[in-house]
Design a protein that fits this description.
This protein is α/β, with parallel strands linked by helices and 137 residues long. Helix content is 47%, strand content 20%.
Length: 137
Amino acid sequence: MHPSTALFVACNVLQRMVSNVWRKRMEIAQRTAGKVLIAKTLDHRVDARMASEFKRQLLAVIEAGHPLIALDLSEVDIIDSSGLGAIVSALKQLRGRGVLVIVGAQPAVLDLFRLTRMDRVFRMFARADDAIAALSN
């Protein structure tokens, strides 16, 4: 194989590897409790690298007809403005036809909600059971 061909092949392989790292699929587990859907983010980071996938999945949940959503962020250690923007987009998609609450936010995540004053926009619950009880009334 010619050296320039080998270099070209190596660059393509490296590009695919990097691309796969940046396009990591966000994992969200779903369960229902009565009329409430609990969507639990299983990833430890919700940042720019996965915010669009996170947003897509949240909007798919809403489009599937779930108006009462408890977003469980208990596994999330780090969230940035892109992740927060995805959550705000989901709230906007509900357009007053439903409720989106936040459950189990870790201290760093809670700090971002407080810093951006989103803790005044979203109802925050320490436990999923508390959110389910509040949304079921």
